[in-house]
Amino acid sequence: MIRIDSVTKRYPDGTVAVDRLSLDIPDRAITVLVGPSGCGKTTTLRMINRMVEPSEGSILLDGRDIRQQPVNTLRRSMGYVIQNAGLFQHRTILDNIATVPRLLGWTKQRARARAAELMERVGLDSALAKRYPYQLSGGQQQRVGVARALAADPPVLLMDEPFSAVDPVVRKGLQDELLRIQDELGKTIVFVTHDIDEAIKLGTKVAVLRTGGRLAQFAPPAELLSAPADPFVEDFLGADRGIRRLSFFPSTGLELQTGPVVPIDADAGKLAARAATAPYLLVTDLDGRPLGWSEPDRLTAGAIDRERLLDHGRPFVPGTDSLRTALDGAVLSPTGWAVAVDGEGRAVGVVSQQVIGEAIRAAHGEVAEHADAKAGR
Amino acid sequence: MSGFFDLPSDLQHSYAGLIGLHLREALLPVLAGLLVSLPIAQLCVRFRWIYPPVLGITTVLYAIPSLAFFVVLIDYFGQSETTVMIPLALYSLVVLVPAIVDGVRSVPPETLAAAQAMGFGAVRRYFQVQLPIAVPAIIAGLRVATVSSISLVSVGMLIGNQGALGNMLYDAQTYHRPALAVNSVLTIAVLGILADAALVLVRLLLTPWMPRKGATR
Ligand SMILES: Nc1ncnc2c1ncn2[C@@H]1O[C@H](COP(=O)(O)OP(=O)(O)OP(=O)(O)O)[C@@H](O)[C@H]1O
Ligand SMILES: [Mg+2]
């Protein structure tokens, strides 16, 4: 565990970048530092590998003060990833990734073999190995940055806004990739961002810092959303924190209706019987995949025109997706009903906005009870 | 009538011999200048405040006429090649020091931060990161220094026979053979162009990592 113990950083010009910060950073989890520009995130991160020395306080790694080992030994045991990757423009991709192993005295051959292995792990085509950084896209460079940080298999990974310079689509890909790699490797990651959405998506725990380098709140993302410590955190989370919070509620408990789901080859009798169950029917193809919505009286048995069905919006997978995805599906659907599908995309039922709303209220209730119980009320 | 490449015997060299001498007198000072500039430039990068005075000194050195240097240096080194080469080496500093400083400073801050974070010591960082990335700027400086040094060697003729190809200018007057002057000037120009081309080639070989014009991804 990394323990930051009432650390203050005062730069020579008098700027207090970090003010009596204490954080216990858990092992094998992603801890995100988030906050507005200039709140001391980079400074905090750089104090962990001693690129910046604290003015007061101390930082312990597994109980030992980080100043007890030679500074370059410490740094080589911590991967570091920065915005724009900071790649060595004069070295090939393979040699960039092999940097720290080479510093640790590995043979060139072994370091390169390891680098090749990492390229695969972070999803880089091996054909890129002999290229130079300028020949790569921003997203690819960022992957190289991650691979380079992982090369010597350090237990700790420090990441300073690693994905902020790439477009949103690439960023989402990189975030998913990081979560996947983290599932496999279980590193202790400290991740800096100013993007609260990124913090909530990636963080096991999120530290919100305020300007002046003081800690505003340190909590798991769900708790941050449900119980912001003060108006600053609430404001930082943004106006739609209620909706975002739904990401943390499973859609498992939603009561699905199967009545309104009819196959495209349904006969007149079936259509009539199902029409009674809901104002709209969801027509599926012969495999059970949703095609679209229709009012029952517009459907003629045996002659259902796919083109005239209303779009069914984005379906959700109960159990896998959150209440947020379910609600999104319902809001986007012209009928106000969300479509639930199984892993193969076959419709397993539909659910109305009203039912989702009840589930949300129930979920909030449970959380509140839980919180009350914890508080001993 | 003597041929274009027949040189008067007082030059004490064949045409090819003069070219060799000229290149030596021109290139050794640039090499010496480079070796001196590297640590000076590094100090200027490390301690920013010494850069302006260092620049001032190199400019003043450049402004001193070579004749003035010769007057002083002849007392120590006589009418020798060394006396010609020392001022040339000093002149090269005025281009090389700023070229290296700019080159080293052009290393992006995030590259330096990455090197530091990965556990590079200061020496390793200089030789493995800063210097290689400064190579294009350093070679740009070397090109200017080399070409100007090649043309400046000729002033060596002022202290008797130490101007290599430049000595031919003197003889052109003495023996009323203008062809010798033409030969001298043309040869010096060609040497300058060839040396410049060689440096461009060296840069291309040393920096496969630079984006090439018209290169495709
Ligand atoms: N070397 C330095 N000397 C003086 N002040 C500094 C130095 N580095 C940072 N600061 C100041 O310390 C404060 C915190 O800087 P820091 O870089 O840690 O912020 P940050 O949270 O990473 O911001 P951003 O999101 O913009 O990257 C800022 O006010 C900054 O101006
Ligand atoms: Mg920062």
TrEMBL record, chain B:
The keyword Transmembrane applies. Keywords: Cell membrane, Membrane, Transmembrane, Transmembrane helix, Transport. InterPro entries: MetI-like, MetI-like_sf. Its main location: membrane. Residues 19-203 form the ABC transmembrane type-1 domain. Belongs to the binding-protein-dependent transport system permease family. This is ABC transporter permease. The chain crosses the membrane at residues 26-47, 54-78, 84-101, 133-159, 179-206. It is found in: Cell membrane. It is a multi-pass membrane protein. It holds the Pfam family BPD_transp_1.
